[in-house]
Design goal:
Shape: elongated
Radius of gyration: 28 Å
Number of domains: 2
Helix content: over 70%
Structural class: alpha+beta
Order of helices and strands: HHHHHHHHHHHHHHHHHEHEEEHEEHH
Oligomer: single chain
Length: 567
C-alpha cells in the first residue's frame, strides 16, 4: 500500500465515524425545528432558535474542553506518553464538572444576560425560557461530554463517540417526538428529550473510556496531586486562547441571531431554517477537521513533518471535494428541504430570497473548519485566536459598510466572507509554523565528560559556541565506572534544541570531539566525550541514562528550569 493510500485510509477511518455522529446533530436540530414548526405559530420556531443560541453562548465558551483536550492527548499519544494521556482526561473532567456546577449556580443571571444580549420579541421569551429552565440541568453532562469526546478523538478513537452520539441523538428524537406528538407537551417535551439524552451520553462515554483504556491499563491515571498538577500551565495557556476565540465565535453567532430578530419574527424564522444548512455542513466537514486534529496531533507528537504536511494536503483535498458536493446538493434539494422544515408559507417565501448564500457557504467556508482541526492538532491556539480576530473584524466591517439595500443580504454576505477570512488567514499563518512551514525542533540531552578536571571553562565556552541555545547543568566530578580505575571524570549534562536529525546530531558531536582534540592517549585520559542519551523523551543509550554521572545533571536541568513534564 502506498503512503498516500495509507494516509487516506487513516483519514477516512477517523473522519467517517465523526461525520456519521455529527450528522445526527443537525438532524436533531431539524427534528426540533420540525416539531416546533408544526406547533401553533411561528414563534415556536424562533424560540428554538433563541434557546439554541442561548446554550451556544454558554457551551461554546467551554469548547476548549474538547479542542484543547484533543490536541494535547493526540500529541501525548504520538509520543507514547501513557501517564500524560490519563492526566489530560483527568484535568479536563475536573474542569468540566466545576464549570457545570458554576452554570447551575448562576443559571438565572445567565438567562437574564443572554436574553438581554439577544433581545428577542416578547412572544419568543416565554417559549425560550421554558426550554432553558429544563435543559440547563444538563450542563455538567454537556461539559463532561466535551472533555470525553475530545480525549477519545485524541486517542485516535472516533467509532465509540460515534456510537454514543447516534444513540443519544436517536434517544433525544424519540423522547421529544413522543412527548410532543403523543403527549402534547410542546416545547417542554422537546426540552425533556434533550436533557435525558445529555446525561445518557456523558454516562456512556465515561463507561467506555474506563472499559477501553483504564481497565486494560492502556493509559495511566495520576496517583498523586503533584502528578495531576504537571502540565497545567500548558493546559491553561492552550485553553485560554481557545476560550477567547470561542467568545468571538459566540459573538458572531449571537449577533447573527440578534440581527435577524431586529428584522422581525419572520426573518428570524427564515434565517433559523437556512442556518440549519450551515449547521449541517459544519458538522459534516468537522468530521474531517476532527480527523485532522487526531492525525496531525499524532504526527506532531512523533515530530514527523513529512507525514504531517502530507496529511494536511490530503485533508484539504477531501474537504474541497465534499464542499463542492454539498453546494450542489443544496442547490438541488433546497425547495423540499424548506418545505420539510416548516409548513409556514410566509417563512418559506422569505427564505427563498437568501438561498444563494446557502449555496456559497460550503465552498467558501470549508478551509476555516479544516485548518481549525490542523491548528488544534499542533496546539497553535494563539494563531487560531489571531485569525479569528481578523475574521471578526472582516465580518463587522462588511456588515456595516456593504451597500446592499436588504440588510439581511448584508448579514449573510458578511457571514460568508467571515468564514473565508478565517481559512485564508490560517493558511498564511501556517507557513511560518514549526511542523508545517518550518522543520521541527528536537530536544537532545547530551552527556558530556572529560578526565581533565581543570577544563570546565574551556569545554563550556566551546560547546556554548557550537550550541548557542543550549542549557548546561553544573559541572561535577564522579568516579570512573570501571572498578579497576581510580580515575575521576568531570561531567555535565547539556540540553540542546535543534532541527538536526538524530544522525546529524551524532555526527556533529563526533566532529566536536575531534575538533576538541579527542584521541586515544596511552594514559587512558579523554579530552572530551559526548554522547546523545535522549532525543525528546526517547532514551537512546540506556546504560548511560541510568548511570549516576548522567542522572545528577539530568535531574538538575529538569528541576531548575523545565519541570518534569517536559521530559
Amino acid at each position: 500500500m502506498s503512503e498516500t493510500s495509507a494516509i487516506n485510509r487513516r483519514i477516512l477511518k477517523l473522519a467517517l465515524p465523526n461525520i456519521l455522529s455529527n450528522l445526527t446533530v443537525p438532524l436533531l436540530g431539524i427534528v426540533d425545528l420540525t416539531l416546533s414548526g408544526h406547533l401553533e405559530d411561528a414563534y415556536a420556531i424562533g424560540a428554538i432558535a433563541i434557546a439554541t443560541t442561548m446554550f451556544n453562548l454558554i457551551y461554546w465558551n467551554f469548547s476548549f474542553l474538547r479542542m484543547g483536550t484533543t490536541g494535547l492527548t493526540a500529541q501525548s499519544h504520538g509520543a507514547g506518553n501513557h501517564l500524560a494521556m490519563g492526566r489530560n482526561l483527568t484535568q479536563s473532567l475536573l474542569i468540566a464538572l466545576m464549570g457545570g456546577v458554576f452554570i447551575l449556580l448562576l443559571q438565572q443571571p445567565i438567562l437574564n444576560l443572554t436574553l438581554l444580549i439577544l433581545k428577542p420579541e416578547g412572544g419568543l421569551i416565554s417559549y425560550a425560557t421554558i426550554y432553558y429552565d429544563i435543559v440547563v440541568w444538563g450542563a455538567p453532562a454537556v461539559l463532561c461530554t466535551l472533555a470525553l469526546n475530545g480525549w477519545l478523538i485524541g486517542m485516535q478513537n472516533t467509532w465509540y463517540p460515534m456510537a454514543v452520539s447516534i444513540m443519544t441523538n436517536v434517544t433525544n428524537i424519540a423522547i421529544s417526538a413522543c412527548l410532543v406528538i403523543l403527549g402534547g407537551k410542546g416545547i417542554t417535551g422537546i426540552a425533556t428529550g434533550t436533557l435525558v439524552a445529555q446525561w445518557l451520553g456523558a454516562t456512556s462515554l465515561l463507561i467506555g473510556a474506563y472499559l477501553l483504556y483504564f481497565k486494560k491499563n492502556r493509559v495511566s491515571l495520576p496517583r498523586k496531586l503533584e502528578e495531576l498538577k504537571v502540565g497545567l500551565r500548558r493546559y491553561f495557556g492552550t485553553n485560554l486562547h481557545i476560550f477567547l476565540r470561542t467568545i468571538l465565535i459566540s459573538l458572531i453567532s449571537a449577533f447573527f441571531t440578534y440581527a435577524g430578530s431586529t428584522q422581525g419574527a419572520l426573518i428570524l424564522a427564515a434565517n433559523a431554517l437556512l442556518y440549519q444548512a450551515f449547521t449541517f455542513f459544519n458538522n459534516f466537514v468537522d468530521g474531517f477537521a476532527f480527523a485532522g486534529e487526531a492525525i496531525v496531533g499524532h504526527y506532531y507528537g512523533m515530530k514527523n513533518r513529512h507525514l504531517l504536511t502530507k496529511s494536511v494536503k490530503l485533508l484539504i483535498v477531501w474537504g474541497a471535494a465534499f464542499a463542492l458536493i454539498t453546494s450542489l446538493l443544496y442547490f438541488i434539494i433546497s425547495e423540499p428541504f424548506l418545505a420539510f422544515l416548516t409548513d409556514k408559507e410566509e417563512v418559506i417565501n422569505i427564505a427563498h430570497n437568501y438561498l444563494i448564500w446557502v449555496y456559497l457557504l460550503p465552498v467558501m467556508g470549508f478551509l476555516a473548519f479544516l485548518y481549525d482541526g490542523v491548528f488544534v492538532g499542533i496546539t497553535a491556539t494563539r494563531e487560531m485566536l489571531l485569525s479569528m480576530l481578523f475574521a471578526v473584524a472582516v465580518f463587522f466591517a462588511l456588515y456595516f459598510t456593504l451597500p446592499l439595500t436588504d440588510v439581511n443580504h448584508n448579514l449573510w454576505a458578511a457571514f460568508v466572507m467571515y468564514l473565508l477570512a478565517r481559512g485564508g488567514c490560517q493558511i498564511l499563518m501556517s507557513r511560518k509554523m514549526v511542523g508545517l512551514g518550518k522543520p521541527f525542533e528536537y530536544v537532545y540531552t547530551l552527556s558530556v565528560g572529560t578526565t581533565y578536571l581543570d577544563s570546565e571553562e574551556k569545554i563550556k565556552n566551546y560547546l556554548a559556541t557550537e550550541f548557542p541555545s543550549s542549557q548546561f547543568s553544573r559541572f561535577y566530578i564522579t568516579d570512573d565506572i570501571s572498578e579497576y580505575s581510580s580515575r575521576k571524570y568531570l561531567n555535565s549534562v547539556l540540553r540542546v534544541e535543534s532541527s538536526l536529525t538524530l544522525d546529524e546530531m551524532i555526527a556533529k558531536t563526533k566532529q566536536i570531539e575531534s575538533q576538541f582534540g579527542r584521541k586515544k592517549e596511552p594514559s587512558g585520559d579523554v579530552a572530551l566525550d559526548i554522547d546523545v542519551v535522549l532525543m525528546d523523551s526517547q532514551i537512546l543509550r540506556n546504560k548511560d541514562f541510568n548511570r549516576d554521572y548522567f542522572q545528577i545533571g539530568y535531574n538538575e536541568i529538569k528541576t531548575i528550569q523545565y519541570g518534569q513534564e517536559n521530559y
